[in-house]
Prior knowledge:
Layout: E1 14-18, H1 47-59, E2 64-68, H2 78-86, E3 93-98, H3 103-113, E4 117-121, H4 127-134, H5 139-151, E5 158-163, H6 172-181, E6 185-190, H7 208-219, E7 222-224, E8 234-238, E9 243-247, E10 260-263, E11 268-270, E12 279-280, H8 281-286, H9 291-303, H10 309-315, H11 325-330, H12 336-339
Parallel strand pairs: 1-2, 1-10, 2-3, 3-4, 4-5, 5-6, 6-9
Antiparallel strand pairs: 7-8, 8-9, 10-11, 11-12
Bound molecules: S-adenosylmethionine (SAM) and iron/sulfur cluster (SF4) (2 copies).
Amino acid sequence: xxxxxxxxxxxxANLRLSVTDRxxxxxxxxxxxxxxxxxxxxxxxxxxxxxxxxxxxxxxxxTKVRITxxxxxxxxxxxxxxxLLAVHPRIDDLALxxxxxxxxxxxxxxxxxxxxxxxVSLDTLKPAVFRELAKRDGxxxxxxxxxxxxxxxxxxxxxxxxxxxxxxxxxxCDLLEFAKAxxxxxxxxxxxxxxxxxxxRAEQVVSRAELLTRLAERYGPIEPLREISSxxxxxxxxxxxxxxxxxxxxxxxxxxxxxxxxxxxxxxxxRCLYATQGTxxxxxxxxxxxxxxxxxxxTQGWRSRADRGAEERLAEHSRGxxxxxxxxxxxxxxxxxxxxx
Length: 341
Ligand code: SAM
Ligand code: SF4
Ligand code: SF4
Protein backbone atom coordinates (compact mmCIF):
# COMPACT_ATOMS: atom_id res chain seq x y z
CA UNK A 1 0.00 0.00 0.00
CA UNK A 2 1.53 3.33 -1.03
CA UNK A 3 0.68 6.16 1.29
CA UNK A 4 -0.67 9.55 0.33
CA UNK A 5 1.76 12.46 0.83
CA UNK A 6 1.20 15.87 2.39
CA UNK A 7 2.48 19.20 1.02
CA UNK A 8 5.94 18.52 2.48
CA UNK A 9 6.13 15.01 1.04
CA UNK A 10 5.41 13.30 4.35
CA UNK A 11 3.44 10.03 4.18
CA UNK A 12 0.45 9.23 6.36
CA ALA A 13 1.55 6.14 8.27
CA ASN A 14 0.83 6.57 11.96
CA LEU A 15 -2.52 7.04 13.67
CA ARG A 16 -2.95 7.85 17.35
CA LEU A 17 -6.35 6.86 18.56
CA SER A 18 -7.67 8.58 21.64
CA VAL A 19 -10.37 6.32 23.08
CA THR A 20 -11.41 8.58 25.94
CA ASP A 21 -10.73 12.09 27.21
CA ARG A 22 -11.09 10.97 30.84
CA UNK A 23 -8.12 10.42 33.08
CA UNK A 24 -7.49 9.09 36.57
CA UNK A 25 -4.44 11.35 37.06
CA UNK A 26 -3.97 15.10 36.79
CA UNK A 27 -0.39 15.48 35.60
CA UNK A 28 0.86 19.03 36.05
CA UNK A 29 2.17 19.15 32.47
CA UNK A 30 -1.09 17.93 30.91
CA UNK A 31 -4.15 18.55 33.13
CA UNK A 32 -3.18 21.17 35.70
CA UNK A 33 -6.60 22.82 36.01
CA UNK A 34 -9.35 22.14 38.57
CA UNK A 35 -12.19 21.51 36.12
CA UNK A 36 -12.52 20.18 32.62
CA UNK A 37 -15.38 19.97 30.16
CA UNK A 38 -15.78 16.34 29.08
CA UNK A 39 -16.86 15.18 25.67
CA UNK A 40 -20.57 14.29 25.64
CA UNK A 41 -21.15 10.53 25.89
CA UNK A 42 -23.21 10.34 22.72
CA UNK A 43 -20.39 11.87 20.72
CA UNK A 44 -17.91 9.14 21.70
CA UNK A 45 -17.25 6.67 18.91
CA UNK A 46 -18.15 3.05 19.54
CA UNK A 47 -15.46 0.40 19.01
CA UNK A 48 -17.16 -0.60 15.77
CA UNK A 49 -17.06 3.02 14.55
CA UNK A 50 -13.41 3.34 15.52
CA UNK A 51 -12.51 0.08 13.80
CA UNK A 52 -14.31 1.19 10.65
CA UNK A 53 -12.45 4.51 10.56
CA UNK A 54 -9.14 2.79 11.24
CA UNK A 55 -9.93 0.45 8.34
CA UNK A 56 -10.44 3.51 6.11
CA UNK A 57 -7.13 5.01 7.29
CA UNK A 58 -5.31 1.81 6.39
CA UNK A 59 -6.52 2.12 2.80
CA UNK A 60 -4.58 5.38 2.46
CA UNK A 61 -1.37 4.32 4.14
CA UNK A 62 -1.74 3.89 7.90
CA THR A 63 0.12 0.82 9.15
CA LYS A 64 0.86 1.86 12.73
CA VAL A 65 -1.81 2.48 15.33
CA ARG A 66 -1.30 3.62 18.92
CA ILE A 67 -4.19 3.62 21.38
CA THR A 68 -4.03 6.53 23.80
CA UNK A 69 -6.15 9.12 25.56
CA UNK A 70 -6.83 10.57 28.22
CA UNK A 71 -6.20 7.32 30.00
CA UNK A 72 -7.10 4.57 27.55
CA UNK A 73 -7.49 1.86 30.22
CA UNK A 74 -10.47 3.79 31.60
CA UNK A 75 -12.39 2.89 28.45
CA UNK A 76 -14.53 -0.14 29.31
CA UNK A 77 -13.53 -3.47 27.75
CA UNK A 78 -10.66 -1.88 25.83
CA UNK A 79 -9.39 -5.33 24.91
CA UNK A 80 -12.46 -5.71 22.67
CA UNK A 81 -11.21 -2.80 20.56
CA UNK A 82 -7.72 -4.30 20.54
CA UNK A 83 -9.23 -7.56 19.27
CA LEU A 84 -10.97 -5.73 16.40
CA LEU A 85 -7.78 -3.92 15.37
CA ALA A 86 -5.31 -6.76 15.94
CA VAL A 87 -6.76 -8.88 13.15
CA HIS A 88 -6.47 -6.08 10.62
CA PRO A 89 -4.06 -7.31 7.92
CA ARG A 90 -2.69 -3.83 7.08
CA ILE A 91 -1.79 -2.86 10.66
CA ASP A 92 1.71 -4.07 11.38
CA ASP A 93 2.19 -2.24 14.68
CA LEU A 94 -0.50 -1.98 17.33
CA ALA A 95 0.61 -0.24 20.53
CA LEU A 96 -0.82 1.44 23.63
CA UNK A 97 0.32 4.35 25.80
CA UNK A 98 -0.94 4.28 29.38
CA UNK A 99 -0.24 5.85 32.75
CA UNK A 100 -0.15 2.29 34.11
CA UNK A 101 -2.57 2.75 37.01
CA UNK A 102 -4.97 0.05 35.73
CA UNK A 103 -2.42 -1.98 33.82
CA UNK A 104 -1.89 -4.78 36.33
CA UNK A 105 -5.53 -5.80 36.02
CA UNK A 106 -5.68 -5.52 32.23
CA UNK A 107 -2.26 -6.58 30.91
CA UNK A 108 -3.15 -10.22 30.27
CA UNK A 109 -6.44 -9.46 28.54
CA UNK A 110 -4.73 -6.88 26.32
CA UNK A 111 -2.01 -9.34 25.41
CA UNK A 112 -4.42 -12.13 24.56
CA UNK A 113 -6.49 -9.69 22.50
CA UNK A 114 -3.42 -9.17 20.30
CA UNK A 115 -1.79 -5.96 21.55
CA UNK A 116 1.87 -5.92 20.48
CA UNK A 117 3.53 -3.14 22.45
CA UNK A 118 2.96 -1.02 25.54
CA UNK A 119 4.51 2.28 26.62
CA VAL A 120 4.00 3.23 30.24
CA SER A 121 4.42 6.82 31.38
CA LEU A 122 6.63 6.90 34.45
CA ASP A 123 7.98 10.25 35.57
CA THR A 124 9.21 9.43 39.05
CA LEU A 125 10.03 6.61 41.44
CA LYS A 126 9.17 8.63 44.52
CA PRO A 127 5.61 8.47 45.90
CA ALA A 128 5.77 12.08 47.13
CA VAL A 129 6.90 13.39 43.73
CA PHE A 130 4.23 11.27 42.05
CA ARG A 131 1.59 12.89 44.25
CA GLU A 132 2.97 16.35 43.50
CA LEU A 133 3.10 15.73 39.75
CA ALA A 134 -0.09 13.73 39.23
CA LYS A 135 -2.19 15.14 42.09
CA ARG A 136 -3.13 11.56 42.99
CA ASP A 137 -1.50 8.60 44.72
CA GLY A 138 -0.83 5.47 42.75
CA UNK A 139 2.87 4.99 42.02
CA UNK A 140 2.72 1.44 43.41
CA UNK A 141 -0.06 0.59 40.93
CA UNK A 142 2.04 1.91 38.06
CA UNK A 143 5.03 -0.17 39.16
CA UNK A 144 2.81 -3.25 39.55
CA UNK A 145 1.42 -2.53 36.08
CA UNK A 146 4.90 -2.47 34.55
CA UNK A 147 5.72 -5.85 36.09
CA UNK A 148 2.37 -7.33 35.11
CA UNK A 149 2.88 -6.17 31.52
CA UNK A 150 6.28 -7.84 31.37
CA UNK A 151 4.86 -11.01 32.93
CA UNK A 152 2.08 -11.00 30.36
CA UNK A 153 4.69 -11.12 27.60
CA UNK A 154 5.17 -7.47 26.65
CA UNK A 155 8.92 -7.66 26.55
CA UNK A 156 9.64 -4.64 24.37
CA UNK A 157 8.30 -2.38 27.10
CA UNK A 158 9.00 1.36 26.89
CA UNK A 159 8.88 3.83 29.76
CA UNK A 160 8.29 7.50 28.98
CA UNK A 161 9.41 10.23 31.39
CA UNK A 162 8.58 13.89 30.94
CA UNK A 163 11.45 15.74 32.57
CA UNK A 164 10.54 18.87 34.51
CA UNK A 165 13.27 20.94 36.06
CA UNK A 166 12.99 21.14 39.81
CA UNK A 167 10.34 18.41 39.99
CA UNK A 168 11.74 15.10 38.77
CA UNK A 169 14.98 15.86 36.93
CA UNK A 170 17.02 14.79 39.96
CA UNK A 171 15.81 11.27 39.13
CA UNK A 172 17.32 11.23 35.66
CA CYS A 173 19.72 8.41 36.43
CA ASP A 174 17.44 6.56 38.88
CA LEU A 175 14.82 6.24 36.16
CA LEU A 176 17.40 4.86 33.76
CA GLU A 177 18.63 2.37 36.37
CA PHE A 178 15.05 1.31 37.03
CA ALA A 179 14.37 0.77 33.32
CA LYS A 180 17.57 -1.24 33.01
CA ALA A 181 16.56 -3.48 35.93
CA UNK A 182 13.10 -3.96 34.41
CA UNK A 183 14.56 -4.69 30.94
CA UNK A 184 12.57 -1.76 29.58
CA UNK A 185 13.70 1.10 27.33
CA UNK A 186 13.50 4.54 28.91
CA UNK A 187 12.66 7.58 26.80
CA UNK A 188 13.14 11.04 28.21
CA UNK A 189 10.57 13.49 26.88
CA UNK A 190 11.17 17.22 26.77
CA UNK A 191 8.36 19.16 28.42
CA UNK A 192 6.19 20.53 25.60
CA UNK A 193 4.03 23.65 25.51
CA UNK A 194 1.10 21.73 23.99
CA UNK A 195 -2.55 22.66 24.50
CA UNK A 196 -3.39 21.87 28.11
CA UNK A 197 0.11 22.58 29.43
CA UNK A 198 -1.01 25.93 30.81
CA UNK A 199 1.78 26.02 33.39
CA UNK A 200 4.57 25.50 30.84
CA ARG A 201 7.63 27.67 31.27
CA ALA A 202 10.75 27.52 29.15
CA GLU A 203 13.00 27.35 32.24
CA GLN A 204 11.41 24.06 33.25
CA VAL A 205 12.37 22.29 30.04
CA VAL A 206 15.32 19.94 30.43
CA SER A 207 16.72 19.91 26.91
CA ARG A 208 18.19 16.99 25.03
CA ALA A 209 21.60 18.69 25.19
CA GLU A 210 21.42 19.04 28.95
CA LEU A 211 20.13 15.49 29.39
CA LEU A 212 23.07 14.11 27.42
CA THR A 213 25.58 16.21 29.37
CA ARG A 214 24.18 15.13 32.71
CA LEU A 215 24.00 11.47 31.71
CA ALA A 216 27.57 11.55 30.35
CA GLU A 217 28.80 12.95 33.67
CA ARG A 218 27.48 9.84 35.37
CA TYR A 219 27.91 7.15 32.71
CA GLY A 220 30.76 8.30 30.48
CA PRO A 221 30.64 8.41 26.68
CA ILE A 222 27.23 8.11 25.03
CA GLU A 223 26.95 6.79 21.51
CA PRO A 224 24.10 7.95 19.25
CA LEU A 225 22.54 5.06 17.34
CA ARG A 226 22.34 5.71 13.62
CA GLU A 227 18.81 4.74 12.64
CA ILE A 228 16.59 5.64 9.74
CA SER A 229 13.19 6.06 11.27
CA SER A 230 10.24 8.42 11.51
CA UNK A 231 9.93 7.56 15.22
CA UNK A 232 10.14 10.64 17.43
CA UNK A 233 12.79 9.25 19.80
CA UNK A 234 16.46 9.49 18.98
CA UNK A 235 18.20 6.54 20.56
CA UNK A 236 21.53 6.39 22.36
CA UNK A 237 23.72 3.73 23.94
CA UNK A 238 25.80 3.83 27.11
CA UNK A 239 29.11 1.99 27.19
CA UNK A 240 27.51 -0.88 29.16
CA UNK A 241 25.07 -1.41 26.27
CA UNK A 242 22.04 0.26 27.85
CA UNK A 243 19.90 1.88 25.16
CA UNK A 244 17.64 4.86 25.88
CA UNK A 245 15.75 7.44 23.86
CA UNK A 246 15.19 11.18 23.93
CA UNK A 247 12.13 12.84 22.43
CA UNK A 248 13.33 16.39 21.89
CA UNK A 249 10.01 17.79 20.66
CA UNK A 250 10.66 21.18 22.22
CA UNK A 251 14.28 22.02 21.41
CA UNK A 252 14.83 19.86 18.30
CA UNK A 253 11.45 19.05 16.77
CA UNK A 254 11.11 16.38 14.12
CA UNK A 255 8.20 17.82 12.11
CA UNK A 256 10.06 17.22 8.84
CA UNK A 257 9.55 13.47 9.14
CA UNK A 258 6.24 13.50 11.01
CA UNK A 259 3.85 10.89 9.65
CA UNK A 260 1.43 11.04 12.59
CA UNK A 261 -2.11 12.22 12.95
CA UNK A 262 -4.64 11.92 15.73
CA UNK A 263 -8.25 10.81 15.98
CA UNK A 264 -10.07 11.99 19.11
CA UNK A 265 -12.55 9.84 21.04
CA UNK A 266 -15.38 11.80 19.37
CA UNK A 267 -14.05 11.36 15.87
CA UNK A 268 -12.24 14.65 15.18
CA UNK A 269 -9.12 14.11 13.08
CA UNK A 270 -6.11 16.38 13.71
CA ARG A 271 -3.01 16.40 11.56
CA CYS A 272 -0.70 18.00 14.12
CA LEU A 273 -0.47 18.15 17.90
CA TYR A 274 -0.70 21.93 17.58
CA ALA A 275 -3.38 22.07 14.86
CA THR A 276 -6.31 24.35 15.63
CA GLN A 277 -8.52 22.88 12.88
CA GLY A 278 -9.53 19.27 12.48
CA THR A 279 -11.88 17.21 10.31
CA UNK A 280 -15.10 15.92 11.81
CA UNK A 281 -15.10 12.30 10.69
CA UNK A 282 -17.81 11.35 13.21
CA UNK A 283 -20.49 13.43 11.51
CA UNK A 284 -19.49 12.09 8.11
CA UNK A 285 -19.55 8.52 9.42
CA UNK A 286 -22.85 8.88 11.22
CA UNK A 287 -24.55 10.58 8.33
CA UNK A 288 -23.95 7.56 6.13
CA UNK A 289 -20.70 8.29 4.26
CA UNK A 290 -19.30 5.27 2.43
CA UNK A 291 -15.77 4.04 3.09
CA UNK A 292 -14.69 5.61 -0.21
CA UNK A 293 -16.16 8.97 0.80
CA UNK A 294 -14.42 8.80 4.18
CA UNK A 295 -11.14 7.88 2.46
CA UNK A 296 -11.60 10.92 0.21
CA UNK A 297 -12.00 13.21 3.23
CA UNK A 298 -8.82 11.80 4.74
CA THR A 299 -6.94 12.05 1.47
CA GLN A 300 -7.93 15.68 0.93
CA GLY A 301 -7.04 16.54 4.52
CA TRP A 302 -3.64 14.90 4.37
CA ARG A 303 -2.75 16.26 0.91
CA SER A 304 -3.34 19.80 2.17
CA ARG A 305 -1.33 19.29 5.37
CA ALA A 306 1.46 21.82 5.89
CA ASP A 307 1.68 21.58 9.71
CA ARG A 308 5.01 21.97 11.44
CA GLY A 309 3.63 22.99 14.81
CA ALA A 310 6.63 22.32 17.05
CA GLU A 311 9.07 23.87 14.58
CA GLU A 312 6.94 27.00 14.41
CA ARG A 313 6.79 27.16 18.20
CA LEU A 314 10.58 26.93 18.30
CA ALA A 315 10.87 29.96 16.03
CA GLU A 316 8.81 32.12 18.42
CA HIS A 317 10.77 34.63 20.44
CA SER A 318 9.01 34.76 23.75
CA ARG A 319 7.39 31.46 24.29
CA GLY A 320 4.63 30.66 26.78
CA UNK A 321 1.79 28.14 26.88
CA UNK A 322 0.38 27.39 23.41
CA UNK A 323 -3.21 28.07 24.44
CA UNK A 324 -4.30 30.04 27.51
CA UNK A 325 -6.97 28.55 29.76
CA UNK A 326 -9.78 30.73 28.34
CA UNK A 327 -9.07 29.43 24.86
CA UNK A 328 -9.04 25.83 26.06
CA UNK A 329 -12.42 26.33 27.71
CA UNK A 330 -13.80 27.57 24.37
CA UNK A 331 -12.10 24.82 22.36
CA UNK A 332 -11.42 21.78 24.56
CA UNK A 333 -10.22 19.82 21.53
CA UNK A 334 -6.96 21.76 21.81
CA UNK A 335 -6.16 19.85 25.00
CA UNK A 336 -3.52 17.11 24.86
CA UNK A 337 -5.74 14.79 26.91
CA UNK A 338 -8.50 15.14 24.28
CA UNK A 339 -6.23 14.96 21.28
CA UNK A 340 -4.25 11.94 22.41
CA UNK A 341 -0.60 12.27 23.29
N1 SAM B 1 -2.68 8.87 29.89
C1 SAM B 1 -1.73 8.16 29.12
C2 SAM B 1 -0.34 8.42 29.62
O1 SAM B 1 -0.13 9.37 30.36
O2 SAM B 1 0.54 7.66 29.23
C3 SAM B 1 -1.83 8.42 27.64
C4 SAM B 1 -2.13 9.82 27.19
S1 SAM B 1 -0.87 11.01 27.58
C5 SAM B 1 -1.55 12.48 26.93
C6 SAM B 1 0.38 10.53 26.44
C7 SAM B 1 1.76 11.06 26.70
O3 SAM B 1 1.76 12.44 26.56
C8 SAM B 1 2.31 10.74 28.09
O4 SAM B 1 3.50 10.02 27.99
C9 SAM B 1 2.55 12.10 28.67
O5 SAM B 1 3.67 12.09 29.50
C10 SAM B 1 2.74 12.95 27.43
N2 SAM B 1 2.52 14.36 27.70
C11 SAM B 1 1.41 14.96 28.15
N3 SAM B 1 1.59 16.30 28.29
C12 SAM B 1 2.86 16.54 27.90
C13 SAM B 1 3.66 17.71 27.82
N4 SAM B 1 3.20 18.90 28.17
N5 SAM B 1 4.94 17.59 27.37
C14 SAM B 1 5.42 16.39 27.00
N6 SAM B 1 4.72 15.25 27.06
C15 SAM B 1 3.46 15.32 27.52
FE1 SF4 C 1 -1.21 12.41 32.83
FE2 SF4 C 1 -1.76 10.93 30.63
FE3 SF4 C 1 -3.67 11.75 32.25
FE4 SF4 C 1 -2.41 13.53 30.76
S1 SF4 C 1 -3.69 11.90 30.01
S2 SF4 C 1 -3.01 13.74 32.92
S3 SF4 C 1 -0.37 12.66 30.77
S4 SF4 C 1 -2.00 10.38 32.79
FE1 SF4 D 1 4.18 16.28 13.86
FE2 SF4 D 1 2.94 18.52 14.54
FE3 SF4 D 1 4.40 17.18 16.35
FE4 SF4 D 1 5.58 18.53 14.34
S1 SF4 D 1 4.37 19.37 16.02
S2 SF4 D 1 6.08 16.45 15.05
S3 SF4 D 1 4.10 18.18 12.67
S4 SF4 D 1 2.51 16.46 15.36
